């Protein structure tokens, strides 16, 4: 009964570098979400997958951000040409159902620091 | 963008006291959820209340929902030091794509 797993837990990078953050959802969960949380703020929606497809990517801030979920399980959030403003906690969550939202199961997050 | 707004932003109480947090939102919803987050950790689901429900209980938690006022409250009774955390409300907009929109949270500190 493993929960949502996110790696790395911490990532420090330099401005302009490329970063990948990985999320391994709970087995059998079809819905997967990425959120970004700045210090002292609530989680901000980035993208939602139902199966392999991105059902809603309206929260991605710009074209430097991209996420994939090629086999409907593990997802990778990719950030190109990182900027200092990208520094935040990136949270992944999964849910067993589509349709009306139920409980989300969150991972422990990946803290990204861009120097 | 954030749908919910929690009030107060921060709350400091003594062990044994009750803690009440409020949440307001803007659009029609299917349900409203409350989550807890310990510092630097992921969020943990506490309770879900559907739009056709007015009150729900879970252990020491009591949640109310007033859809006419677009507001909800979370009451934690007989608080403990271990309840110290941030608490967030999250809403699922009617007709939305199943995504939850979170508020900015209430930071609760319970002192022994």
Mean pLDDT across every amino acid position of chain A: 93
Instruction: Indicate the proportion of strand residues of chain B.
Output: over 45%
CATH architecture of chain B: Sandwich
* CATH evolutionary superfamily of chain A: Immunoglobulins
Sheet with most strands of chain A: 7 strands, mixed
Encode the helix/strand succession of chain A as letters.
EEEEEEEEEEE
* CA radius of gyration of chain B: 13 Å
Largest interface: A-B, 32 and 26 residues
CATH topology of chain A: Immunoglobulin-like
Total discrete domains of chain A? 1
Termini of chain A, distance in Å?
A: 37 Å
Please tell me the overall pLDDT of chain B: 91
CATH arch. level architecture of chain A? Sandwich
What is the tally of helical segments of chain B?
0
Within the CATH hierarchy, at the fold level, what is the topology of chain B? Immunoglobulin-like
Q: Assign the structural class of chain B, choosing from mainly alpha, mainly beta, alpha/beta, alpha+beta, or little secondary structure.
A: mainly beta
Give helix % range of chain B.
Answer: under 10%
| Total domain units of chain B | 1
> CA-to-CA gap between the ends of chain B?
36 Å
Describe this structure in words.
The complex is a heterodimer of chains A (115) and B (112). Chain A is mostly beta strands. Chain A has one domain: Immunoglobulins (Immunoglobulin-like). Chain A contains no helices and eleven strands. Chain A has strands at 5-7, 10-13, 19-24, 31-37, 44-50, 53-56, 65-68, 75-79, 88-95, 105-106, 110-114. In chain A, strands 2, 4, 5, 6, 9, 10 and 11 form a seven-stranded mixed beta sheet that branches. By secondary structure, chain B is mainly beta. In chain B, strand 9 (85-93) and strand 10 form a beta hairpin. In chain B, 0% of the residues lie in helices and 58% in strands. Chain B has strands at residues 5-7, 10-14, 19-24, 29-37, 43-50, 55-58, 61-66, 71-76, 85-93, 100-102, 106-111. Classes of the chains: A mainly beta (115), B mainly beta (112). Chains A and B meet through strand 4, strand 5, strand 9 and strand 10 of A and strand 4, strand 5 and strand 10 of B.
